[in-house]
Here is the input.
Amino acid sequence: MGMKLPRWFHQLGSPPYVYRLAERLCPWLRGLGVTLLVVGGYWGLVIAPPDYLQGESYRIIYIHPQTAYVGMMAYVVMAVASGIGYIWRLKLAHAVAVSAAPIGAWFTLCALCTGALWGKPTWGTYWQWGDPRIMFEALLLFLFLGYLALRGAFDDRDKADRVTAILAVVGVVNIPIVHFSVEWWNSLHQGPTIVRGAMAVEMLVPFLIMVLAFTLMFYWLLLRRLQAEIVEREGDARWIRELVAEGAP
Amino acid sequence: MSEFFLMNGHGAYVWSAYGITLAVLILNVWLARTKLLSALQRARELAAQAEVPRKQPTVRRLQ
Here is the structure.
């Protein structure tokens, strides 16, 4: 082996370093995320013109793909962190995976709900059993819930980390299936608007602002949960005692 | 103004979708915050407990 790893790699394995890094990043992620959410939301709801085909209901496009995308991103973060944690036995990586799971579950549930609310005025139905996009997105939700339930079945945290890591990594095959489901099968769901470059600029700008806003919100939530996870796992480490003595909230 | 909220009959779908999304965002912020605060509270309790045993050996010696 003899491969020399860069310094930042070791720093990212150090819980106190990552905790303090998160503490510094969170106010920026929150401030920028909330600002863009307000700007993008107003732009999408008020300024952007109605769609020539779908009328006003298309405005769900400024939140629905974004929540679905955050759910998928959360899964990829969870799977990659699980893989790193499993291979290099890095506890911090497992902490990242555990932190991503509940956020991913909530956003995937949100994507299913906003999708249903878009489906009714567009396809005439809230839900279509057997529609590939809907089914694989629902599977994504069950992968998150299964991951969390499986964790709950273990008393030993290290064992839970290793077993659930395998589930997280195996389940990642679902991500490209969700993404390409609208192209591989005949689905009620519309195709990828952005990839085809089929969106008008006055709609594209608020759309991308909302993508960025949801991404920043996701990483803010992830880092806050990671901080909690680190404090729980480090227990009575000296740096945590110093941290609470310093008057951390 | 009411025309804007009705959105040609699509208002109920659009506004409930935005409402649900906002609720999920706020809920997640609250959940993450609560989790961190309770973890820090537990760490504070652990730190307080760690202070006590240090004094115990002297007590035992006296007995």
Remarks:
- The mean pLDDT of chain B is 84.
- Helices of chain B lie at 2-6, 11-51, 56-62.
